[in-house]
Specification:
This protein has about 130 residues and is α+β, with helices and mostly antiparallel strands. It has four helices and seven strands. This is Profilin.
Length: about 130
């Protein structure tokens, strides 16, 4: 069985993320977060939940994470892929949660995306 904390720790130790947050897919409250200088500002979790209900909003307006607007280049009801310069955020919905992975310029975007999707799959299999 996996847990939110276990997935967060695994993502950070894999070298495929510099920051991780796992939020409640209903209200946007944070279950767990980790990584240096990475957190969600007030209201960002709820906004992300809303954007998963209406992914076209993310494509039109971008996604704000940790106070920074990221341009979405893929957004659907399962996942968002975003970037801001050489950095980016991958977001993937699990059963009851949304996994948010931040990556900096030293990490490959596709590697971070793959890791984010894998964590969401693992959580989803456990109905988390």
């Amino acid at each position: 069985m996996t847990s939110y904390q276990a997935q967060c720790d695994q993502l950070l130790s894999s070298g495929k993320a510099t920051g991780v947050a796992i939020i409640n897919a209903i209200d946007g409250n944070t279950f767990v977060f980790g990584g240096s200088r990475f957190n969600l500002k007030d209201g960002e979790g709820g906004a992300i939940v809303s954007q998963f209900r209406y992914p076209k909003i993310a494509l039109a307006n971008g996604v704000i994470v940790n106070g920074i607007r990221y341009t979405a280049y893929k957004a659907d009801s399962r996942s968002f892929y975003t970037r801001n310069g050489a950095t980016g955020v991958a977001l993937a919905r699990a059963w009851k949660s949304i996994v948010i992975v931040f990556y900096n310029e030293t990490i490959s975007g596709p590697n971070a995306i793959f890791a984010c999707e894998g964590a969401a799959d693992a959580l989803g299999k456990n109905r988390l």
